[in-house]
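LAB NOTEBOOK - FOLDING QUEUE
OPERATOR: T.R.
BATCH SIZE: 2
PURPOSE: Compare the predicted structure-token outputs for two unrelated chains run back to back under identical settings.
PRIORITY: normal
REVIEWER: second-year student, initials M.K.

ITEM 1
FIELD SEQUENCE / FIELD STRUCTURE:
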Amino acid sequence: MSQRQRADSEGSLGPDDEVMPYSDDETDDELDPPSSEEEAAEPGDGPPGAPQPAVASDLGWSVKANDRPYHQLPEFQRKVFLCIKKSKYCGNAIKTYKYNAFTFIPLNLFEQFKRAANLYFLALLILQIIPEITTLPWYTTLVPLVLVLSITAIKDLVDDLARHRMDKEINNRRTEVLLDGGFQESKWMNLQVGDVVRLKKNDHVPVGQRLDDDTNNEKLQEENQLAHYDAFIDCEEPNNRLDKFTGTMRWSGQSYPVDLDHMLLRGCRIRNTDHCHGLVIFAGSDTKIMRNGGKTRFKRTGIDILMNYMVYSIFALLILVSLGLAIGHGFWYEHVGSLAWYLKDGKDQDSVYRGFLSFWGYIIVLNTMVPISLYVSVEVIRLGQSKFINWDLQMYYGEKDTPAKARTTTLNEQLGQIEYIFSDKTGTLTQNIMAFKKCNIGGKNYGDPTTAKGVSLDKGRPVDFSWNTHADPTFEFMDHSLVACIRSQTDHETLEFFKLLSLCHTVMVEHKDGQLVYQAASPDEGALVTAARNFGFVFLNRTQDTITIQEMDHEATYEMLALLDFNSDRKRMSIILKFPDGRIRLYCKGADTVIYERLSPNSPHKETTQTSLDRFANETLRTLCLCYKDLSQAEWDAWARKLQVASVATRDRDDALDLVYEQIENNFLLIGATAIEDKLQDGVPETIANLAKADIKIWVLTGDKKETAENIGYACQLLTDTMKIHYGEDLRVRQALRRNVAPSFGHKKKAPEPFFTEPGKNALIITGGWLNEILYEKKKKRRRFRLRRLGRRPLPESPADGQPINDFEKEMRQVDFVDMACECEAVICCRVTPKQKANVVSLVKKYKKAVTLSIGDGANDVNMIKTADIGVGISGQEGMQAVMSSDYAFAQFKYLQRLLLVHGRWSYIRMCKFLRYFFFKNFAFTLVHFWFSFFNGFSAQVAYEDWFITLYNVCYSSLPVLLVGLMDQDVNDKLSLKFPKLYLPGQQGALFNFKKFFISLFHGIFTSLIIFFIPYGAFLQTMGQDGEAPSDYQSFAVVTASSLIITVNLQCCAASPSTSASCAASNALRQPYLWLTIILTVGISLLPVICLQFLSKTIWPSVGDKVQRNRKKYEMEAEEEKRAPTFQRGGRSRRSAYAFSHSRGYADLIASGRSIRRRPTNAGSTNAGSTNAGPTNAGPTNAGPTNAGPQDSIREAENI
């Protein structure tokens, strides 16, 4: 397929597919239109580092080191309740539990009675205490209500005790705090704002804290010096922003800027240093991690919502039936009861008042229509289904000892109704374990199986790296010619290629047991440095200013002048080094799209390298370009001065640095390109194919480049060569048609015309830039608003400039996107931010009312996981944050098909059968009272014994219904996976809906009719064997109850013994005539149901019925041969680019020296270069301004 022509994004005709959308890091208050003063001071309006106008400080948080009384001063007090005041600085103890010993009973009861059903039965219990109304003893309602409340309370208590244990464990952790002139062990809960703490390697950070500024390290080496440390810090008040912090430290008459790079966040872990010191800035509930611990969005299943509506319908039906029977009683009393002398009760009450009392009496008698035990039974079933998922050994991943985990018990049946799956790519579909596979050096490709002399082989053997004592034994490479070229040391470009890989990075190195252990900011970078290590260029050590490597047979130390770190906007990283011979060289590696536009016109190998990049991309490899540039001393000196000005800018420092970086990153000479493989997880193609057969559509949402994502789509069979690929531009066609039709809000909406009228399968690939145009993001809106006010761009007069005219136009863009995407067999959204991932899920939920599932493995997937109806976390290489935010978790993507097609389908079928049976048995039980009313003058007399009414739902019919909900299976797990079409009824909601509800209602009406009238007719004129008439009320009640129990339990195909507790039952059941009546009643009740089921399965069989009919045949068949992945590479160029999911590196840590052990000049100090650990959010003391960025903080917090 030919490359589509894209519109120029600068002209707003279309977005640039290569541009990563902005990060979603703004709060709503930042999106207000800027004032004129703010516009005048926008970054970029003046040169970098130019003086900025003074702005009023909004910093409202003051911290003084080593001075606890300072934070208790009156000006820091806030009113808590009435005249009670408390310091605004929180203690460090955390509390996540809900109850204590005194509040558990009242609070738990208060929460339970907020549920309408419980409140209804409490009101019913109160009515039963009123003598003139009640027709049933109070215990018939009290016993079930107490049972329901007790079970729920026990469940809540167990959950809260677990939170108590977790809080106690965290609060009682130990750390060292500076008190009385020396460091003492203290519990986390006793830390306070302003304390100086000492953290050791692998410690968790107990608070939010700031590390000491590097310029003052020499002054803070001893404890007695730290005891006199009295710095003031003015900073922003506590908030939930993990990616931003602003403050100023004042000490010894000087001021120092404090930003996020100086912060350690609570819950992180100290790395790359033996110990460090920090100052507590935020504690307890003020820390950023606790501020981000807001309430998780409560998710409810569609069956839950439907069930509530049905309960409301039942309640309405109860009111109507009770009202009709009350009217009947008033009419009966007026014409019959008041005229019969033997019915007079001596009360002076007219028929209307008696009807009024009868209404409330029937509300009590028929109360079992509203099932009190329904919700508890549902929770028990869901708990059991969750345990089955946890116990499933076929979803257990032995390599990491990771079982599947149902982290919620409320969503199991919704797993059987999924229509759309939204999946991350890296680490979810792929392993996120990178391997250096191929490269291009000086225009020549390496990596295919080749001999040392360059002869290509069909199948080779891995290179033997035994000549290299530092080689990584797990590294494999098939091209022997590259090793021979390096060992000969004759090709300058090849040596320069691997020298760049060993020097241009932010990897940390540790020496453990004589081995080198690399710690990289991303798997890509670790793979590249490991490759250089195996080819003879071994990264050995680094200090704040130097890097030492072994170049084949000798060591060399390079002075590091500057490190220009990677980020998702720059898409490259550079390092400026001074060679031992005095030369100054800039090495750079980055995405091909940014490197090629910065190459010198005289750069060699551009065309051949471009061809190799296309080839590597077609093989789904992640590519990266390498280049360099020599600098003169004068060039370096001039640029270094600009760098110094930009690095101390107090406003928009990052933008200023980026502009300075641009001035030197140009006129590069290309060396070559690398190709890294991120392998698919096992079973991914088969899983996707099987889910597609179940009519589940899979969308891949990734931050990777379009070509990379597209190639992975082909590799995992999400895309095939038979599909027609569409891009974001195709939305323009529908939008143009929309604009030609005036909006008609008042008329009935017409069904949208299909996007694709031609037969065949379609797929959509859309970039984050196009999603910006569709979603009309706030930040983009603010930026354009600002430019218009500055007169740099005219207001749009038509939507041709890319902006919607009104809300209708905006909504139509979204509708067009969803309609087009949902008509496709596969959708890939690439170069998207975490916020856009969540927005895409929201659009499908909003416009398609579909059940969605999101699956991911990293922190950038959390928003998407929380937004979907069901979130699944994969415990992979990127920590546990996705797992902690998910509803279900396991270790491999392939387990998703078992979760949905087996457990999800079973759970849905079981829950639907349970609900249908539950409603049926309650209708059959309750409506007997209705028929009995026509023979007792509508007097609210009950048809059963009191004990039977009390125990019917609790004992007599509880076990069968629970067994249905827990154990029912139509087909086994193997057949469920073999026939994915069995999943379709769940998507269609075919097994439980209002139609099924009314079928259960009429079934219950029919059964109650039989159960009442057959015994009534049998008892009408009967004589027993002993000459006594058995037609007394109690005997009738026992026969009716026995018939009911046997009928409903046989209906469920499970026996439930009914033992009687009444003498009347014993007397009645001794009569053979009554047993015949019971058998006749049960038979007539069940016969129509059995006949209908037989005819249905014979004449109109479902897919499940057909599979069940041939179950033995299918079980005896051999398993289908697993198809090998049919990845067919066409002639299209699908260039892949490395590292758009690559996070910010360790450049700031390295440049500050905080992460590097100093030479033993001062043995007492250690420069803390932590990657986020510790107990608080702390501040300055004995370690340089640590540049542990937000990505590092989040990454480390995931591992806790």
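ITEM 2
FIELD SEQUENCE / FIELD STRUCTURE:
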Amino acid sequence: MSFFGLECGRQGNREEERRLKANDRDYNLSFKYATNAIKTSKYNLLTFLPLNLFEQFQRIANAYFLILLVLQVIPAISSLSWFTTVVPLVLVLFVTAAKDAIDDIHRHRSDRKVNNRKVQVLINGELRSEKWMDIQVGDIIKLENNQFVTADLLLLSSSEPLHLVYIETAELDGETNLKVKQALTVTGDMADSVTDLAAFNGEVRCEPPNHRLDRFTGTLSYAGQKYSLDNEKILLRGCTLRNTEWCFGLVIFGGQETKLMQNCGKTTFKRTSIDRLMNELVLCIFGFLATMCSILAIGNYIWEVQEGSKFTVFLPREEGVNAALSPFLTFWSYVIILNTVVPISLYVSVEIIRLGNSFFIEWDSKMYHAGSDTPAEARTTTLNEELGQIKYIFSDKTGTLTQNIMTFNKCSINGKCYGDVIDYTGQRLEITEEMESVDFSFNPLADPKFRFYDHSLVEQVKLENAEVHAFFRLLALCHTVMAEEKSEGELHYQAQSPDEGALVTAARNFGFVFRSRTPESVAIEEMGVHRVYELLAILDFNNVRKRMSVIVRNPEGKLSLYCKGADTIIYERLHQSCGKLMDVTTEHLNEYAGEGLRTLVLAYKDLDEAYFTEWKQRHHEASTALDDREERLNELYEEIEKELMLLGATAIEDKLQDGVPHTIEQLAKADIKIWVLTGDKQETAENIGYSCNMLREEMNEIFIVAAHSPEGVREELRKARTTMKPGDEEEDKFVSKTILGNIPKIIPDEAVSGEYGLVINGHSLAYALEPSMELEFLRTACMCKTVICCRVTPLQKAQVVELVKRYKRAVTLAIGDGANDVSMIKAAHIGVGISGQEGMQAVLASDFSFAQFRFLQRLLLVHGRWSYLRMCNFLRYFFYKNFSFTFVHFWYAFFCGFSAQTVYDEWFITLFNLVYTALPVLGMSLFDQDVSDSWSFEYPQLYVPGQRNLYFSKTAFMKCAVHSGYCSLVLFFVPYGALYDTVRNDGKDMADYQSFTLLVQTCLVIAVCIQLGLDMSYWTIVNHIFVWGSLAMYFVITFAMYSNGMYRVFPASFPFIGSARSSLGQPCVWLTILLTSILCALPVLTHHFLLIQLQPTINDKVRLKVLQAKAAPPPPPKRTRMRRTSSRRSGYAFSHAQGYGDLVTSRRYLHRPVKPRSGGFTPTGRSLAAFNPAGRSAGYSPTGRNQNPKQEVEPTSLQMYRTRDMDF
């Protein structure tokens, strides 16, 4: 459901500061703040007709035809009936109005659905159910679990301890991991007391409405105290409340003023580049039409002066008309006659073609995603051909390139790599969905969605390999994940990031199940045994430390520190005996990094009780210090996190959507540049760049722009540009391009030797987008093969798109799946939404939508290219056909005394575009294709001509006009010469007006059909029916209209009685038709032949290969992941935000205590006290293991496996 409107924010005086009082509507209404209602519709019943007609007549062609209609009702100048113009004009206006009305009805329904949602509001001391649209700023509302957040709220209280709430921001950014917000203690203590909340009269003073989703500043004044407000206390509209029974919030911003709506961007009417070119060409055609009419008017004046007086005896002039007035009337008469240079049927046909190609996209079964039951959808039917000209793609990351799912793929434990599948020959196999995964049925608490394919690791777990057990024990203990058990054995983990969730889930499946936590303890199931570890300290993660540690005491009283973090950080803190193991683990890490996996190193350390007691006292003093608290704590962390023993490493895959690397590779071959604009941090974005093969180590260089000042950013950009193009001038380069009097600056593409990548973060991008530096940034970015912008706001995404649109002669496409992508999607020429995900805001704002990123290559390389090719072929042919039709009138004027007499029958003029030539050209425009879809994928380079406008341009238009001029000369003078002084078989004269008209008409219809056949590459049964059927229809209608019967019924309308029978029965007429057709087609055939031989296009070359192959291209070879190593580390496999350590170790529970349970495993199986993880040297696997004594109790399922293995 759309939360977006067409305009974002109130108009009028700019608000400097927002002031509001809780529970005081009268006070808040005095400021005239926006209500919570949204309006995205454009019309209502009263405004629809005038406003829609006003918009339609802003199109030059529609206004032109309206003027023509007015001229045609003036008898003195009209030589054609009014219905020749009014019928097609009314048809176009009606079809367009109906389409606009349907679209606006959908918007009205969407608005009503959102505005009429119900929420509980505190009014006059009681909770009432009110519609969203009736909510006012300053109201206190109650939200319940799984409800959408109604407006931008200040969190007052919640059902959770510590006044926390958990929200899901999938509607905002496509991310499904939960985020935590916390209320002020002073408001949180009111809990759900309606009395206290109704008495709450706090005053909020804060920033005015703005687009910054990640920032909020304000103050709350209450009970004589002032409290600071930040983004951690704000719930934004578009979020969803999760895992929280209820919460109360104070409305700060409503409706159009919410941060979500401020980021929506303006809804603009999108037009294709062909539409814009057509407007320019139409203006040129009008000028050309005026020139032709002026020439003919001058000719009329000369003829009237020199010859006209001789005819006045038997052809007297109308009253009041003389030789001076006649040219003026003749000018307007020829404007009417020659108006077919821009026929209104052109626009009707264009809309039909676009609609048909939109249906092809929606009907394409290869773009249907069965998993989510989501077909592709063309939400806008006017932009299809633009899909064949894309030069820049701007993509979101989370939910667009990735699935936002982290999977535990591989690990290295004690120098041995696990995760690969090895066959009997010792070769590694490519892991596929069909491959048999590890059977975790022995573990009743295993996550059924977890997949792992290396059976050797689970065997090591069952054989009680000490290092493997220590490895998974660390993963089960060292984290800040929250566990929720809704029913017996049904565990749900709420992780700060998907990475941590994946690691804890992996430990869970391998027998080390994290069950619950309190601020003082962590409870886990170890191979069926319930064990509670005392949690003594959490040394939390941050961006500087790049590691996390926990200090725990096991049930046997042993103290241990478990640590996980980046390899470079952990390696500095390892015991010197770990050298050999560190070398082996580094090899594994390089291999993981080469595969684009996110790596993490695990280590541990046993602690001395006396030392830890003394260290804990110093830690307490440092944590309560008023000065230098952070520095003192970091020193203590550094002190204790030393002499660690290496356990191994993990490799997490940020799971890409299917086919993403291949799609990006194909688009790159089509010379399409892809920029990733993401809100994620730099490490995460870089990691995805490598996973998608957008960034490669083979690149000459990858530039990182991360300066914190304008001067620093400018220097880094210039340094990058100088590296790519040494000796490059400092001044900006532009190419002037005049468009309707405007001269915008166009930055040309600059060639560089080699391949480069650019990564720029959010704060640097903010400087780079300033007017003084935007061209510097754009030049540098456009020289790179890949550009990744990190930590960008939704508005910055739109600004980057607008920057490229403004200074590059290129068509842009933006693709995303969340509300934070909406402004970018609206700003680009084409917006694509990924549907079937949690958030649907991007889909509602998009022009096209589908479920998977991989469908983008089919949308562009097949449907987009075909649509553009078909539209260009249509326009070239249509202009050729109508110019040829119209120019014959021009030549005829020199032989009819410039009298504005038509060379054709009036009915032929009416039916030529509507009946005789409409279906053949529509058939070509809907079904033609130069090569099949499979060959289009085989040669993505076929896409390049569309980017360069090679199929239709001003040059192509001029060639078309010249070709039409030649054909019109042939069509007029060959029949004229053939009938001149010609007699029929019976000796009667044949050179009459009606016979000449019929011959020219027939030659024209056949010539344009031959030209259509030469232009068409792909003949279907439909094309055959349309072409031959239209020719047959012409002769049937001609014989019918020129029959005696029609003349008797309508003598004034059908004067050509018997002309068809008389003329078409003569051999010389058919010989003339044959000669005319050959003369019209011969230059075209010659031009095509010479072009293919001397200067073949990429299309000609591929079509030749298709003919030589005589079959579909071979299926693409099975893509296997290339194994390579890399010293570059992927993003660290845990959250890149400040951790929740302080919350976890606070003196209150984060979740209510879970109910007592017996557990999935029998907790009395065995003791692990005999395991001593410190009893090995790094790199050395002990040969002897302490075996647990046999238990007298019934063994668990895990123990039964172990017993069978040992007995074997």
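REVIEWER COMMENT (ITEM 2): The mean pLDDT is 82.
FOLLOW-UP: none requested
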